[in-house]
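Next up, sample data.

:::
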Amino acid sequence: MRAFQPLFNRIKDFRIRTKLFLSNMILILFISTTIGGVAIYASTKFIEANTKDLSTQVIHQVSDNIESKAKEAFTSSVYVLSDTNIRQIVAEQGEQVTSESYPAFRSRMEFLLAQYGNGNPYLNAIMIQTSTGQLYWWENKKGLDHTLNHDAVSTMMLRAEAYLHSHQLSVGWSPSLRERNEVFLIRDFVDVNQIDRSLGTIIYSLDSNFFLSLGSGSSIIKQSNVAILNPLNELLVGGGSPETDKLIRNSVKDVLSELDAAMATVEFAGTDSHLFVQERTPTLGWRVLCFIPMSVLLSGTQILVFVIILVSLFAVLISTGIAAILSNSSTRNIKILEQTMRRVEDGNFDVRIVPLGKDEIGSLSLRFNFMLARINELINIVYKEQIAKQQAEFTVLRSQINPHFLYNTLGTVKWYARMNEQPEIERMISSVIDLLKSSVRRVGEFHSLDQEMTQLKNYIFIQKIGYGEAFQMDYEVDKQLLACEVPHFILQPLVENAILHGLEMSKGRGEIRITAMVVERDLLLTVEDNGKGMDTTQVVNILEVRSQKESVPGVTGIGIHNVHERIQLYYGQQYGLSYESALGLGTKAIVRIPYKIKR
């Protein structure tokens, strides 16, 4: 970041016209690059998605073709098993095969097998081993690399029997048991007349191209990128190059689930990504794999990318010219405004700007003219405001003097009561002074419950001077709760209401109980009296109907509705004041606030 600091400093010193042009160019390049990149990305993903669908459809055709080829070879082996002449030789019916007669039987068997093999150019060989150990085979004469002999056939038959036995199969498809590009169909030579009887083992050797003659007409799926795996994940067909072999090895982990018949993903191998498509054949359970290089799939997008880049460059050139014209026209009005401001700096407040347009700069010019007119007007009235300010300060000082005068006056009355030995009057005056101080000199909106109780007891003392023993106070407050934080003057209005509207109206011996308790992390303060009580309508209206609320005059002039509103303002709608009352049974006022210790 520090390396670019000199460049940032130079840009800050550029003229506005240059900054506007550079910002427009950066915005244009960003938008063009973003739109072009998104278009290329979207087209690539669209082609990839369509190719996946197309490849899945094509691989389905290829899969059906491969299974059809496998069924064709399997059916051919059934014909061999059903051939009466071949079965008689294998079962040695009529004449037992001896070492002397074996060459003749071998020649006859080769002739019989040739009838089934010569019709299929992809059939390399048919090999049979009887239960007595006799070997017969036929080999396709299409090539010059004839390698079958008695020892080679014997070795392959031993491997074939071991393959079927190890996998507990009666019919199996395996990779070639020799170094050839072929697939082996291995099965028991069952007696068609008695299927639970095995006469030996037969091997069908099929050239790999037999399965890769796709016949799909697809330009994206070719023999070189197709592989076939049997249910044991053994490679039957395909592979050969390091890149393809790696993809086939990686595909073992992507085995299809029982619910999925096909899958298409993107795999990476070597220097290129490949679209990996696989499908499981419905009958044999083979996995047909196809690996298509993404470079081949996306080759058609090169022209699209070139067109998008060309269009983006053309749009950038046109936008550059438009940005230059707009930046010049915008800064022309700004320059005029700057020149006018310089004249105002010299003290000339009578200059005015003639707007050159109705854009933001033109509107700013009009506002500038109004501002100059307003400045002239403010210069004329500033002295009046200074005089008004001095008068306001004098009023504040006087409002601060009045409470001190009242304190001094009450202090004189208190001293006079003491001189005349009037302790009740002296204590009452002291309580009034304490209440007045707590109302005028308090700091903040909260104090401790202990301070609230002290103020309440001062008020009770004053009331008892007038009421005498007409009511009795009872306090049930745990000392541990006296440190709780409460708002100022929330209990006194409730006690005032209990005395004036509960006890006084009942004309009986009154009792007022103050309690405090903690319920579910909330502090509940209750003021309960045994007065005349209220009906249901009065209980609702005392808090919810503002026009009918009763504000009882006191030292601070705070009513019960004001207490409820202040609590909800401080703590939220779930807190506040509630009443429980019934006619003739007294009234209970309940204050609910959060439990919090005063710090």
